[in-house]
Amino acid sequence: MTNRVVITGYGITSPIGNTPEEFWKNLEAGNSGIDTIKKFDATATGISVAGEVKDFPFDKYFVHKDKKRMDTFSLYAVYTALEALNMAGINPEDTELNHDRFGAIIGSGIGGLPVIQEQGERLATRGPKRVAPLFVPLSIANMATGNVALRVKANGVSRAEVTACAAGTNAIGSAFREIKHGYADVMLAGGTEAAICEFGVAGFANLTALTTETDPKRASIPFDKDRSGFVLGEGSGILVLESLEHAQARGANILAEIVGYGSTNDAHHMTTPLPDGYGAAKAMQLALEEAGIQPSDVGYINAHGTSTQANEKGEALAIHTVFGDDENVLVSSTKALTGHALGGAGGIEAVATLQAILNQYAPVNAGTTELDDNTSVINVVLGQGKQHDIKYAISNSLGFGGHNAVIALKKWEGE
């Protein structure tokens, strides 16, 4: 016997909003959060724009010393986890909550990159004795999960997914399976990243992965014929997942159901996906098979869509392989609005996919004006978002190392 798994809450911090209301308002309107880099002088990197979190509400849950005990990627994760629990109506202090069956799986592609840069500079200029004692626990990628678990007393299943840009979606899929197969009642799951620093931007720029476009409105244009590289983003999205039985027993407000998960590897190249999209297509097929649905049942796909040539050629072919020419399947990449938050992307985009279902609305693929021959095989939402019948939706995440992860969500209809 397996459990059905439902979503009862979520938290978000992103370039287009730090609350569900603000995030949805900008998602619906197609308002981009990409702008000139403010965190540091990026002139020497040759890159000028990024999707930075703005006005992060630090004071809501933190005190000053928390900045010294957690890197930003952990702060983002703790914030979104607490927001998600508040929405779900779960109080970590509740004695009726079985903490041994309450867990967290949170993905991050890199972890504390800014503190790695800072302490590397300190090592080079001041010597090994001046490296901060907390350098390691500040920087290692599992500490988003660790800090969340510590804050909310999540004693159950606990680990980090570190699968580059697929990490957030892998985390949600893994948490889904933990509940489905009876190892947990409640899970916090998603992704977080805060890699916009000189080290991070320089690394991706020298890999020629980032766009050098200076116009924020034309920088991240997924599937457009003129796309030229991705825009680095940051933020976190975390869901509260529960078994249906657990959620109903406490009278929770159920938002949607997770019904499928697919995970594969291209085993092809360190950074470039398979040209024919086979690995991504297989991950989508696996998610649909677990959900017990046909491709024609899906109304919306939140694509990985990074605004890079190789990635989008492969993903578009993968989508077409699975869904064919079905015009009912609308596709958009919300990275046009947020940039690419690496390991945090899957969490942020799970929230976007959930909101698409809740509002029966397919967000626009903002900024894109003309598809090329490689991407015109799919039904990209251009111009403005569309009201649309969305009973099922999927969210794709494809990462360096060949990692592919897909989750399938279903509209909650009270059954």
Automatic annotation (TrEMBL):
Any GO BP: fatty acid biosynthetic process
EC number, UniProt record: 2.3.1.179
Function: Involved in the type II fatty acid elongation cycle. Catalyzes the elongation of a wide range of acyl-ACP by the addition of two carbons from malonyl-ACP to an acyl acceptor. Can efficiently catalyze the conversion of palmitoleoyl-ACP (cis-hexadec-9-enoyl-ACP) to cis-vaccenoyl-ACP (cis-octadec-11-enoyl-ACP), an essential step in the thermal regulation of fatty acid composition.
Upper classification of the organism: Bacteria, Bacillati, Bacillota, Bacilli, Lactobacillales
Protein name, as recorded: 3-oxoacyl-[acyl-carrier-protein] synthase 2
Any one GO MF annotation of this record: 3-oxoacyl-[acyl-carrier-protein] synthase activity
Alphabetic keyword roster: Acyltransferase, Fatty acid biosynthesis, Fatty acid metabolism, Lipid biosynthesis, Lipid metabolism, Transferase
Enzyme class, broadest EC rank: transferase
GO cellular component, one term: cytosol
Family: Belongs to the thiolase-like superfamily. Beta-ketoacyl-ACP synthases family.
Catalytic activity: a fatty acyl-[ACP] + malonyl-[ACP] + H(+) = a 3-oxoacyl-[ACP] + holo-[ACP] + CO2; (9Z)-hexadecenoyl-[ACP] + malonyl-[ACP] + H(+) = 3-oxo-(11Z)-octadecenoyl-[ACP] + holo-[ACP] + CO2
NCBIfam families, alphabetized: fabF, PRK07314.1
Boundaries of every Ketosynthase family 3 (KS3) domain copy: 2-411
Active site residues of this protein: 165 (for beta-ketoacyl synthase activity)
Pfam families reported in the protein's UniProt record: ketoacyl-synt, Ketoacyl-synt_C
Domain of life: Bacteria
Pathway terms, separated by semicolons: Lipid metabolism; fatty acid biosynthesis
CDD domains given in the database record: KAS_I_II
